[in-house]
Design goal:
The chain contains 7 helices and 2 strands; from the N terminus they run ααααββααα. With 180 residues, the protein is mainly α. The protein has a two-stranded antiparallel sheet.
């Protein structure tokens, strides 16, 4: 069990698999959003990458929830960020990452639940189409894109701190605790 669960000196296999697996999926998600933004309509690359955006977002949502629950279960065993200012900033940064990982897809799912189009996932109906849309459920989705780009910036900051600060400057092993 000690390899599965987190320990004060390293993250367990479940945490590492969720972290790196989701990192790959989020990279693909951000790539699809960037292509949608950067390329003109009717562009084959844009359409190919954008075509999986919704499916990938729906796939990521339960993984985010699972990762959050797993993190809470292991909270007392996890490596500490420290009690100094940087440690508290790291804790706040991770909390912001988790909050946005829930909020970004959450506002789109809420909008889909209240829309005339509904939502399907891999051929299954998640939300049936409504006869009339529900405006208050759809309104927060206006922030989906902006919140997604804020999440992307936080992820880049997370990477910069892990590689730049912890691995190259402090050489404190933080990156290797997550790498396994």
């Amino acid at each position: 069990m000690s390899r599965v669960q987190d320990q004060p000196d390293r993250y367990g296999v479940v945490t590492r698999v969720l972290h790196w697996g989701m990192a790959i999926l989020f990279a693909a998600q951000f790539l699809s959003a960037a292509a949608h933004w950067a390329f003109p309509r009717e562009n084959a690359i844009r359409e190919a990458l954008w075509g999986y955006h919704v499916t990938l977002g729906i796939t990521l949502f339960p993984l985010v929830l699972l990762r959050g629950v797993w993190g809470l279960i292991n909270l007392r065993r996890r490596p500490s960020h420290g009690d100094d200012l940087l440690g508290r900033a790291a804790t706040a940064g991770h909390a912001a990452l988790y909050a946005l990982m829930v909020l970004v897809p959450g506002v789109r799912l809420l909008a889909a639940a209240g829309s005339e189009r509904g939502l399907t996932y891999l051929g299954m109906t998640v939300f049936a189409p409504r006869e009339t849309g529900i405006a208050w459920m759809q309104a927060p989705a206006e922030w989906h894109g902006e919140l997604g780009w804020i999440l992307a910036l936080l992820v880049l900051g997370h990477i910069a701190m892990a590689v730049g600060w912890h691995h190259l400057v402090k050489r404190d092993g933080a990156l290797s605790r997550m790498a396994g």
